[in-house]
Amino acid sequence: MSLKFKTPAKINLGLHISGKRQDGFHELETLFQMVDLFDEVEVESTPGDIRVFCDHPEIPDGPENLAYRSAKILKDHCPGDYSGVTIKIKKRIPAGGGLGGGSGNAAGVLLALNLLWNLKLSRTQLMDFASQLGSDIPFFLFGACALGRGRGERLSHLQPSKKFNVILINPRFPISTPWVYSQLNLKLTKGENNISILQKFFSQSDISNVGAHLTNDLEPVVIKRFPEIQHIKNRLSALGSRGSLLSGSGSTVFGIFDDPQMAEAAYEKLRDEKWDLFNTQTVGSLTELYPKEMIDFPE
Question: Is the CATH number 3.30.70.890 carried by domain 165-281?
Fold first, then answer.
């Protein structure tokens, strides 16, 4: 038996860093939102070991791959004698761009194997495994939007916004997340935390004010080293975006639009640039992504 499904990209509409933790990670608060740029994933129970095949040449196929590690953690920690698994990934989400593509793949594999192997794990149990694998992975099991705290793994439900358009621009160069955090001056992030204000406008579907209150404490670090990020933000602003921001630690920049026609016009004007460009819309629910049986958790 095999399952085919889509795993989405995410953006961080807000990201505030409040300090460094004893475990070496940073304490943060962030507003996650899924968008409808997808990787395609197929998971099949097969004899043998865990195998990963991806059509992107730079994506690892062994233990460095989060999808592989998702299968491994379930195989190692759940009682029973499970067969191997073959995971096939068709990438559309730019790798290393701050969009959580690998984290979404990993979450999808957890959901798929929970069903294929009849593990009957609850969403909470799967999220516990996910948090051991990576800070963003629990979000992809939780909902289409969420407020994240801690490393990003402590999640709270939000009143979803009405759907809006998001143009994603990836400048075709990666940015190292550890490098970005190593350059962060925590004294400069101690100012006003606008995440709660952003959350209020988001839940009111006030897209204009959401755009005006986008915030990312990592963005100044990245712009200082990579001025093209500011150039992309300026282009989006000139083309009518309600706001633009670096997603996570980058390198993808997004602009939000409350008018689909304006988003499409901006997309057409940006197509000549040497960037990876996507005109997307926000995702409203996990039911848009996965077969019902994959997210039909036991009580």
Answer: yes
